[in-house]
Amino acid sequence: MAGMRVALDRRSVAIQVRDDLREKMRSGEFAAGAKLPSEPASARIYGVSRATVREAYRLLEQERLVEVRPGSGRYVLPGATLVVQGSINLVESTTKILTDLGYDLKVRLIGTTERQATDAERSVFDLADDTRILDVERAYTSNGELLTHAINSIDPSRTPLPIEEMDLTSSLADAYAAVGRRIDAGFSDIAAATVPPRLAEMFHVPTTAAWLRFDGPLFDQHGQPLWWSRELWRGDVRTLRVVNRRSNEFI
């Protein structure tokens, strides 16, 4: 690691350094008990100032992934790898999650529907009362089997391109990233669910099968809303690790 420079993108530089270090914990490069590079060493690796590295380390300390041992340095805490593995995919695009899991993925556009925004959507997107939004309904399949069903609700006036020019079978996350807006945070209500009869008939899915429902908005690196996502994930495809803490300092 010592001789490598890491390329950074447009996000807050300290957050980028933090995220790269989290990924190294997730992959096992920095296992529990490992000592992190010193601030000067990390500053050289990432091509940033020591102050930026110090801020990145402070974020990891707030997440309780590392601890400071006075006179010795910063060390990865026991359980840090499990914490990071439990949260690493929560803000990835559906396409990336499924392809990373090794599926030969096909995305099918089921249709688009314009409708009145809900109160929650108007609040998150700061919309006027009469604003209409667009539901983009898609199915993610592999070898003909339904893995995920998604309805992404977007404000047509804020899309990267006019809707008629967008390839709605491609990743929405990639389309927004192409204009500098990357998924940075998401908030979801998660509940057990079954597939609605319409989808069950369309994809020959048992109506009694166990699925997970994710329902909530996604935000970019500037805190601006991207879209509201309502997804159904097959129970054996998506799993979650919930991290419980006594303190509310975890961010």
TrEMBL record:
Domain of life: Bacteria
Protein keywords: DNA-binding, Transcription, Transcription regulation
Domain (HTH gntR-type): residue spans on this chain: 11-79
SMART domains: HTH_GNTR, UTRA
Organism name: Acidipropionibacterium virtanenii
PROSITE patterns associated with the record: HTH_GNTR
GO molecular function, one term: DNA-binding transcription factor activity
Gene Ontology biological process terms, A to Z: negative regulation of DNA-templated transcription
Protein name: Mannosyl-D-glycerate transport/metabolism system repressor MngR
InterPro entries reported for this sequence: Bact_HTH_transcr_reg, Chorismate_lyase_/UTRA_dom_sf, Tscrpt_reg_HTH_GntR, UTRA, WH-like_DNA-bd_sf, WH_DNA-bd_sf
Matching CDD domains: WHTH_GntR
